[in-house]
Write a structure and sequence with these properties.
The complex is a heterodimer of chains A (80) and B (316). With 80 residues, chain A is of the alpha+beta class. Chain A has one domain: 3-Layer(aba) Sandwich (Glutaredoxin), CATH 3.40.30. Chain A has a 4-stranded mixed β-sheet. Chain B has 316 residues and is an all-alpha fold. Chain B has one domain. In chain B, helix 1 packs antiparallel against helix 2 and helix 7 runs antiparallel to helix 8. Classes of the chains: A alpha+beta (80), B mainly alpha (316). At the A-B interface, helix 2 and strand 4 of A face helix 3, helix 5 and helix 10 of B.
């Protein structure tokens, strides 16, 4: 599973990245967390409101700092 | 009710005299602080809930469909409810332009979104009452609509950086949120905003309180009264570098007004603080060539100054 955190580096994006990493560690799953900061790449995924979270290339949430629990929920739903 | 509780504390329990500067400054400080923080939490929560229904992706879809003149009006109105922070200015700009939304309409949005923001609104409502808060919203929207119309007419598309036109954005996803998601988002938003502005609110109200208690009444009439012609442009110039400090500036403006600064000058000052920001200009430089950036700032600054002069002339 590939988890991407999309955002150009504002404080909110860092929180989301941190929550995503914590969620992955807690679930104990094999997943790569990647930060996407290039504006062209972010726009190409259809995101106008960073921070956003994408799993395997599909945007799951944008404009919100998801909590660790919300990230885990999305990951578990995806893994099913 | 609030006032009576604070009076009881300051004059009754602490034994300060109501006429003395220290008592009156402290009374002012405690009263305004309690009221503003209460309003901040309640209203930001409500606004964040409302905003969770207006993601930028939806706003873009609406603006794509309407003709340009209506677009300016709608863009200014949607700027009020669409969540916005200076870090989303660039992606929003690219997204709008790429979707074929006219440049002028995009600017109406970019002017209105930061200017008519919830923190400024709450501070104005709490400290000045709803009439002035509405006056601020109304004139903010007019400035946003007119600035967008003017920029649209000037045909400035060639001053947008070329790479903006080369970006192809993917199909946007509009997520469906549950009530739990919305409430969680709203709480998170309250924490984020209050966490950011509280020191400014305290410092602003403290300075305001001290001036209220110690500075002589109407000592500013001579420098910033309605008949001082250069007060409005000067207020705008001072306002530009104070970005994101609306929370700290507004309590000070209240006292400046008490001491004789004219209404129009005060409004122009607050608008310059919220609408024209140097950090945002630096971010927007990535998508706007210097000339367009300068025209954008110029048009908005002129709009704000005209608003200031208008209210100085009307509300004497």
């Amino acid at each position: 599973m590939k988890i991407q955190v999309l955002g150009s580096g504002c404080a909110k994006c860092k929180y989301l990245e941190q929550h995503a990493r914590e969620a992955v560690a807690e679930l104990g799953i094999q997943a790569e967390v990647e930060k996407v900061t290039d504006i062209q790449a972010i726009m190409a995924m259809g995101v106008m409101m960073p921070p956003a979270l994408a799993i395997d290339g599909v945007v799951k949430s944008s404009g919100r700092v998801l909590t660790k629990e919300q990230v885990s929920e999305i990951i578990t739903r995806q893994a099913k | 009710m609030w006032q009576r509780a604070v009076d009881w504390l300051v004059y009754g329990q602490l034994g300060l005299s109501a006429g003395a500067p220290l008592g009156s400054a402290l009374d002012f400080f405690i009263y305004d602080t309690a009221k503003i923080f209460f309003l901040l939490v309640v209203i930001i929560f409500a606004i964040a809930l409302l905003r969770s229904y207006f993601p930028a992706e939806k706003t873009k879809k609406v603006l794509e469909k309407v003709p340009e003149s209506l677009g300016n009006v709608l863009a200014a109105l949607l700027g009020v409810v669409t969540p916005f922070c200076s870090c989303s200015a660039v992606p929003l700009f690219i997204g709008f332009i790429e979707a074929g939304i006219p440049l002028g309409v995009t600017f109406s949005f970019l002017v209105s979104a930061p200017m008519v923001n919830e923190v400024a609104l709450i501070m104005l409502w709490g400290l000045f009452g709803w009439r002035i808060a509405l006056l601020y919203i109304g004139s903010g929207l007019v400035v946003a609509i007119l600035s967008g119309l003017v920029i649209g007419r000037l045909k400035l598309e060639k001053w947008v950086e070329e790479h903006v036109y080369r970006i192809h954005s993917g199909e946007a996803v509009i997520e469906t949120l549950t009530w739990k998601d919305r409430l969680q988002y709203a709480w998170g938003y309250v924490g984020e905003i209050v966490g950011k502005v509280w020191p400014y609110v305290l410092v602003g109200i403290a300075i305001g309180g001290l001036m209220h208690g110690y500075a002589p009444a109407d000592f500013l009439v001579k420098y910033a009264g309605p008949s001082v012609w250069y007060a409005v442009p000067l207020a705008v110039l001072i306002g530009v570098p104070l970005y994101s400090n609306a929370a700290g500036v507004i309590p000070i403006v209240k006292v400046l007004m008490e001491k004789g600064m004219a209404m129009g000058t005060s409004l122009a000052f607050m608008m310059a603080v919220t609408a024209l920001s140097l950090p945002e200009a630096i971010l927007l430089r990535k998508v706007l060539k210097p000339r367009l950036l300068a025209i954008y700032f110029g048009v908005v600054a002129i709009g704000i100054m005209l608003t200031g002069y208008l209210f100085n002339a009307v509300l004497r």
